[in-house]
Amino acid sequence: MNELLAPPVWVNADASFQRMFADLAGQPRVAVDTESNSLHAYRERVCLLQFSTSQCDYVVDPLAPIDVTPLAQIFEDPRIEKIFHAAEYDLICLKRDYGFKFVNLFDTMHAARVLGYPAVGLDTLLAEKFQLTINKRYQKADWGARPLTPAQINYARQDTHYLFDLRDALEIELREKNRLELALEDFARACNVEDPKEKTNGSSWRRFSARKELSQRELTILSELCRSRDMIAEKLDRPPFKVVGDKLLFEIAKQSSEKNVDLAEIGLSSKQIRLWGREMLAATKRGTMAPLVKLEQPKHPSAATLRRLEKLKAWRKKITQELKVESDIVLPKTYLNLFTENPPKSLRELEATMNDSPWRFKTYGSQIFELLGD
Q1: Gap between the Cα atoms of 260 and 280, Å rounded
Q2: Which H helix or E strand runs over 339?
Q3: Residues of 340-355 as b/e, b for ≥16 C-beta within 10 angstroms?
Q4: Residue 303's pLDDT is what?
Q5: Mean of the pLDDT values across residues 74-96?
Q6: Is residue 373 a contact partner of residue 345, using CB atoms and an 8 Å limit?
Q7: Average pLDDT of 223-249?
Q8: Does the pLDDT at position 212 exceed 80?
Q9: Which of 139, 152, 239, 280 is deepest in the core (most CB within 10 A)?
Q10: How far is CA 32 from CA 58, 91, 136, 183, in A?
């Protein structure tokens, strides 16, 4: 049965933020989560930050007139362990919006993946481990809207409140299976977040460039449609799919619509046609006359590269089945591509390449090097 929790501390002013910060700075570990508005805005942003200590849950409103940048000290402090569940997206958002850097991380989702759990959602793990029921009804809520309801705030705090117990239970299992070292080095690797790419207006057409059923002219029309849709979406501050969905945009490009009736037959609503039909048709017309878009020529790997790739994949599949984990736990895709395209000439070179994954090198390095030899 779920425990009755005390209300979380709502942090939306400098005074409450400073009290929370002082508490977090003195902790050996804190649980962290974020909520963003990717389903409700053209350019998403972090709309909520949640922190838990062993004694208190905090929910921070970064949209309030407070400065949250001092939190960089928490995220960069190697003495404080930061516990996330599914950290990758949170880290990307926090770096994009605030430039935060990270050290000393524990990701309960990745820990479960290293252990071979078939389902690693937080609600599933909490139900399995502690018979806790987490209601996910607000998972797709508009976290950028204000005010938030008490139910939303309570939902948000549940994503961090139980992470301490989950983290400790998973660490015991990692030690029992001799996989803690592997998990820890993956946590360290996850801290190296790449600088996020700036969202550029109209570039979304490239997602369709591999579709063989599109001619180059149709792809050119689609590029103009995407550019027009993105301009509308940015002006309205809503995701492009909430203007016109990809499937409909694809059909407009295929049929090269010239009349509103065509848009209706394709499936656009009367409201979409009334608001944006003229712009969609104008974009279609531009696409029929514009210079054809230039496509990036795909790289064709050599026969030797493909041979190495197949050998590594077959080996990885065998180890995956033995450990009962997913393939990237045995050998991440970055290593797979790097080794097949630029095979190391010696074990020492391989070790240097895998310097951020010493467990994998120690456990599999000689096997990998042997497989890469011609």
Answers
A1: 10
A2: helix 333-341
A3: beebbeeeeebeebbe
A4: 92
A5: 98
A6: no
A7: 94
A8: no
A9: 280
A10: 10, 10, 18, 18
Which token pair is 171? 């660490």
- Which structure tokens are listed for 95? 């770096």
| pLDDT of residue 55 exceeding 60 | yes
Q: Please spell the DSSP secondary structure of 24-42, one letter per residue.
A: HHT-SEEEEEEEE-TTT-S
- Say how far apart CA 158 and CA 115 lie, in whole Å: 23
Pairing of strands 46-52, 29-36: antiparallel
Residue 29 forms beta bridges with which residues? 81
Q: Which residues pair with 60 in a beta bridge?
A: 11, 49
Vertex 158 angle, CA 156 and 160, to 5°:
95
Question: In whole numbers, what is the pLDDT of the chain averaged over residues?
Answer: 93
Query: Which residue in the block uniquely carries the two structure tokens 């502690």?
Result: 130
Which structural domains are found in the chain, ordered by start? 9-190 (3.30.420.10), 203-289 (1.10.150.80), 303-372 (1.10.150)
Between 161 and 216, the more confident residue is 161
Q: What's the pLDDT band for 208 if we cut at 50, 70, 90?
A: confident
- CA angle at 119 for the pair 33 and 82, rounded to the nearest 5°: 25
Q: Is 172 helix (H, G, I), strand (E, B) or coil?
A: helix
Residue 82: CB atoms within 10 A of its CB come to: 25
Q: Which amino acid is at 162?
A: Y
CB 106 within 8 A of CB 84: yes
Asked if residue 205 has pLDDT above 50, the reply is yes
Residue 1 confidence class, pLDDT cut points 50, 70, 90: very low
Instruction: For helices 108-115 and 122-130, give the axis angle rounded to 10 degrees.
Output: 70
* CA–CA dist 75, 191 (Å, integer): 10
* Rg (alpha carbons) of the chain, rounded to whole number: 25
Residue 191: CB partners within 8 Å, gap ≥ 6? 91, 101, 102, 103, 105
Cα-based angle 118, 119, 124 (whole degrees, multiple of 5): 145
Per the CB < 8 A criterion, the answer to whether 260 and 273 are in contact is yes
Tokens linked to 83 = 């516990």
